[in-house]
Each structure stands twice: as C-alpha cells, then as structure tokens.
Fold each of these.
Amino acid sequence: MLNAIEVSPKVWWVGGIDWNERSFHGYTTEKGITYNAYLIMDEKITLIDTAKATFADEFIERISEVVDPAKIDVVIANHVEMDHSGSLPRIKQVCPNATIYASAPQGVAGIKAHFGIDCVGVKTGDTLNIGERTLHFVQTTMVHWPDNMVTYSDKDGILFSNDAFGQHFASTKRFDDENDLCEVFKQAKKYYANIVWPYGMQAHKALEACGGLDIKLICPSHGVIWRSHIAEILEKYEAWTTYQTEEKAVVVYDSMWHSTEAMAREIVDAFIKEGISAQLLDVKDNHISDIMLAACDARYIAVGSPTLNSNMMPTVASFLTYFRGLSPKNSQRIGIAFGSYGWSPLGPKQVEEQMKNIGFEMPLPVITQQWIPSKERLSEIQAQVVKVIEDTRA
Ligand code: FEO
C-alpha cells in the first residue's frame, strides 16, 4: 500500500486510491479516482476531509502511520458528498475528542442528515487557529453542492480546495509535476465539464474570493496536487468559469442506415472548409462524458438523429439530456440540429427542440432529409453550414 506522503512540512496526504473505479455517477473515470484527505501535524492535529466509506480502513491506516488517530483534535469537512464524508462515522469512532467543522448552515445540516453527526458551523471569513497555522474558510456555494467550502492554511500557503481543481486520476505520485501533465490537464478539464460546468458563475465567484491568497499548493480532494502548474490551472479555470469557447466544432450523431451519418460528415466538411477544427463523434462509440470533454468549450455543436419509432434515437436523447443538465444557459454557442427520416421527421425535430431548451443559438431550422441524401443535397447542407459559419464570423 502507498504510504502517507508528506506534501509540505507537517502536512500529510492520507487519502484513498480507487484504482479500478470506472464510473462516477455515470461519468467514465478511465484513470480511476483518489479521495484525498490531509493531516496537519500542528498543536491541534487537524484532518482535512475524509474518504469514501469503502476506503476507511486504508485511510485510517495511513493516518496511523503518522499519528495515533485518537490524537486528532480537529476535523474539517469541506463537503458533505460521501466521497469525502463517507468515513466520518469511522473517524468519529477513532477520534472521539475531535471537533468537526463544516460550512454553515448547509454543511452542518448535510452532515447531520447523512450521519447524525453534529458539527460546528463556519462561514466565509471565519478562522480557526490550530497552533502555528490559522485556517481560513471560504464558502464555495454550488461548486458544486450548496455546502461546499475550501480551507486555506496561511503558514504553508495551501488551499485545500476540495472538488475544485480536482481530476479523476489515480496515481502513486501526488504532485502535478511528477505525472503526465497532458493527462492531468485532460482529466481536470473532463472533471470540470462533467461536474462543475453548470456552476461556472459560482465557481468564478469562488475564484475571486480566493484571488488575494498567496497560494503555494492547491490540494484538491481528487487527483494530484498542483505545485508547479498553479498559474496554468487557475488560468484554465478562469477561461472555463467565464464560458470562453474555442473556434472548433463537435458533430455528434447516431445513425441507422448511414443517411444521418452522411449528413454529419458533410457538416464536418463544412467546418474543415472554413478552417475550423472539427470532431465527428458517433454517440454509440463515444461515452457522453467524453463527448462533454470535447464539447464544453466548442463554439459550434451539431447534433443529429434519425427518427426511430416517432422519436430521436435513445442514444442521442441520453446525450442531450445529459448536456441539458450540465450546460450553462448563457453559453452563446451555435447549435445545428439535423437528421434523416423515413416518413416523419419527428426525430430531428426533437433534437432541435432539445437544443433550444439547452440554450443554443440555432441560426438554421433543423436540417432534415427523407430517406437517402443525394450528392447535390449533401452539397446544399454543406453550403448551409458554411453560411452559418460565415455569418457567425461577420
Ligand atoms: Fe468529490 Fe462533490 O464530491
């Protein structure tokens, strides 16, 4: 088992590593998950967060490598969600004298509702002296639950950021600069797109609230610690939380007999013709959480479905339902709906309706095709999309 790791003088990583978890609420976690918790060995021995309940033994064993858990004085529960609070009942048993702090009122109420455990409530601006260090609390409401907060340790310049800046990435190495950085940033973006994206405005406010802090380490509750690339991840969060898009296109579709696929390929060609990078993603072959990674900063999204039994394909409906739950309403993205049909264009029309509900700007009426599109019809479709691109740029 990986030992506890001292990530800063007298601050230890004591979390759990879930090497083989491949789904977090339906979001594919192909690199596994970590549940990070941190132990601060100050006059008041302090534990920041816990781990998922199934990792309680591993987590408490790591604490025990550093100190007898019974000596812990303070537990900070930055977040109620059970991947971080699930081991609180065990911690309560092994640390009977610890005082548990959570954000007020939602964190306190949430911990009580989940575990019947009483906590002391703290709010933004509150501090707690634990000896050489003073902990500062900043509530980060709706990033991504009502109770979320972050904790800043002034002596070390450590921001214990909980879910913010996290990545689902299991590794024996705890720091950004010890891992494949491309993969770490990819997983940070996938995490943002699938967990935090709907709450960009709140996340941006939270970033501003932490803006004056002298941050030397960002210790999230998932993935690696940001040590050498703090400026870059902050810059990326600035772009993501302000809904900045890139000039790129994602074309998502399902198809039964290749007509909708032919339309999708033609739409991709329109973007290529206009010098815009484009991805073609068959929703049967690409998980919706991976499509979100591609789509979350794309200026253009095209979605296509044929009609199946008077509806859009269930695969496409699933993707759009997921997208609707995640996408911010004010994203100012360009949407294009399309699809083929045999005797009724209900499927493509449902795609159009759902894309409008998501909040896309839809400059074109839904592009439909009965049976099989001819070469001439495909050229027309390409020309329509080229016009949309040119009008958007004008
Ligand atoms: Fe990682 Fe919202 O829990």
Amino acid sequence: MARICVVGLGYVGVVTGAIFAEMGHHVVAVDVIPEKVDALNAGESSIYEPGLDELLKDCVPARFNASMDMVAAVADSDITFLCVGTPSTTDGGQDTSYLEASSKSLGEAIAAKGEYHVVVVKSTVLPGTTDTLVKGGLEAAGITCGEDFGLAMNPEFLREGSAVQDAREPDRVVIGGFDQRSIDETAELYVGIGCPFVETDLRTAEMIKYASNSFLATKISFANELSRLCEAVGIDVYEVMDGIALDNRIKRSFLNAGMGFGGSCFPKDVRALVSLANSLNLDSALLSAVLDVNRSQPLHGVDLLEAANGTLAGKRIAILGLAFKGNTDDVRETRALPVAEELKKRGAVVVGYDPEAAENFKAMFPDIEIVGSIHEALTCANGCIIQAEWDEFRELSADDVDVMADKVVVDGRRIVEDVDGLEESGAIYIGIGLGSIE
Ligand code: UGA
C-alpha cells in the first residue's frame, strides 16, 4: 500500500484522502489552517457530505491523519496530491496563488527529503498551469522534473452531495503525466477501481476537466433556454428532454431545466475558459451564452412568481432551498442569491429555509429571515420558490401550502411529486418549463 500526502483540506482533499485511506493506503493531509487539521484528527469533517463522517470514523487515525508540517508529511510519503483551491479572479480568470505557494513549499520539502517523489495536481487548473506554474514552483527548490520528482495531473470529477459514492465508483480516471513513470505511479494507487483509465499529457488532462464541466453546464443552459420556449408554447420541457434522451447520442443527465447552475465549479470553470479564450483573442460565443442563460434563469423564476402574484411589493416570499443544490450546505454561487436579491429589489420580504445551508446563506445575504422548517417558511407567505433539490421539498403537500396567505408555488427544480394534490387544494403550481395551454 502507498504512502500518500494530500495538500489542502478542502472538499477535494478531504474526500480524496478518505477514499485512498479506505482503499488501504496511508494518507497524511497537510493544511495551513490549524482548525481544519484539528477537526480531521478528531475524525470530523468540516464539510457536510453524506457518508463522509462514517468514512472518517473508520480510517482516522489508523490510516488518515492531518498535519501542518509539510516537510515531515513529504518525508513520510511517496506521492503528494495538490488539492488546493483555485478560485475565480475578478476578471473570471483563475487565482493560482494557493497553488503557487504550495508548489514552492512542496518543492522545498522534496529537496529536503532528497528522494524521488511524485507530485499530482488535483486542483482544477487551466491548461498549461501544471507544466509551468507548478513545475516552476517545485523546481525553484533546485530539483528537476523527471529526475528528482515526477509530475502528473489527475482531475477530480466528484459531485458535492454524492462525492463519496462518486469517488468509490468513478466513470473514469484521467491521468496526465510529464512522463510515463509519473502516470504509472499515479495509476497504481487506483488499482482495483473498475473503470476506464485515460492516460494523456498534462495539458490534455487539465482541459478534460474544464471541457467536462463546461459541457455539462452547456447541457443545463440548453435545457433552461428551451424551457422558456416550452412554457411559451404549452409544452413540458421535461417530456421533451426525456424524448431526446432516448437517442443514444444524447444522455438524459444534466438536462433538467431549473433555476440555473451554481456551486464552486460550473460557473467558475466556464468563466475561466471564456477568460482564457479572450486572453488568446479567440471567440467564446457558445460558453458566453451558457453564462448569459444562467444569469437570467433565476430572474425568470422570479418573473413567473410575480406574474402569478400580480406584484411582489410587500409580499412575503419563501425561498425553499438556499444551497446551490440539494444535499449540501454549500452556498457558493447558489441561485438562491440572485433570486433573493431580485425579490428584494421588487419589494418582497424574503424568508428562507434550508435543512443545512441556512447559516451559510445568511452570512452572505443577511437581509433574509431564516426559519427552521417548511411550515414556518410557508406560514402567511404569498408565494414560494423551490430553489434546491432537497428530498423534503419533493413531498410538499396540500397541508404544507394550507398555511400560505396566497398559495403560489414556483417549482424551480421540478421536484414536487404530488402536483395534482397541490392543485386540488387550490394552489397555483408553476413548474419551470411546464407550459400549460390556457
Ligand atoms: C460538478 C460536476 O458535476 C462534477 O463532476 C465536478 O467534479 C465538480 O463540479 C467539480 O468540478 O468539482 P457539483 O458542482 O458538485 O459538481 O454539482 P452538480 O451536481 O454538477 O450540480 C451543479 C449545478 O447544476 C447545481 O446548481 C445543480 O442544481 C445544477 N443542475 C444540475 C441543473 O440545474 N440541472 C441539472 O440537470 C443538473
């Protein structure tokens, strides 16, 4: 079994470390934030992710520990995964400052160790980052790529909310390498994972990650644009998507029209590709349109609510689901934010409920009344928007909406199961992309 070091105790680092430990490897994670290190060593994850706590319980401390000492962690391992964040810069590009800093300290640790070590970039980085910025950062310590250390790029395809499952059963493992040795030593860690392996060069691996996320984001914006057309001509876009997905060349996933895509990945990654294209004087009409549709879709949800209510001024409106999707407490780029801002702008009083993300959302948008249940959110409300796919919203019932002052439900994720029951109770149900012929 291998000895692995993981740099960065964020989302990707914790899940990657835990899964490698579950596979029997020995993992030490390094972070500069003492609270994150202490939490992991206590077997606690600082993120909400189904199945992760149980996993940590099984492998901490026997096979998974955290430390702030990079030199010691590298000395005790043979391969290091860089899992630090690469957030957006103000112009949509990628901020590589964490990656640069960690590459430099990793290089110094490898030089101090004086033995061959493989470095694997897992952070999402634009093509050309690993073989320039990361390689340069490592070599600043006087070591040479291909001789003193190997270099690979192994992008991550985990979805928040199902990360543990995705990591256990990936669709594919992509490994780009500076040389074959780097690829082989990285691939060895995944022995036993039954999925296709893609071996490629560093830049191709980097681009595969961006292309995957951008393509999925494009599918969503396509479904969202079509949903407005369907609404206008009395068609259900979900039926249309089911119909096209029977063509083997099209898959049904990520064609759910809704309130748009959020999270720490799709918006950031599409913006980064647009920014890369711009910097190379290349056209990015399609990806720019993907972002445009995503900007207007949540406002469209508010328009639907306003059309049913007459006006939103002075109305009490509940947002059900504040996270960027169900099963997570993550509010980064959540579509609940543009919805809440637009509701405020149109004069509504905004109340919000989310099983996990309420506090995080309140910190970002304080001008909201946070409540602890669907019942409280809907009491005396003049309308509601379902923004995230939590299971409890699927079961929205006639009893739930009975406490509303005006029973107007905009199902921004098309998840309500008993639509007939709601309508029979006198509620106005408006599903995104569900056109009805009057
Ligand atoms: C996404 C990718 O799915 C992962 O493969 C990738 O590893 C990850 O980004 C990343 O780059 O780290 P994630 O952001 O966790 O994962 O969430 P998704 O499940 O992909 O959903 C993203 C957004 O799209 C959510 O706001 C969701 O509500 C929305 N969505 C998704 C739709 O509006 N319609 C759909 O049909 C599917």
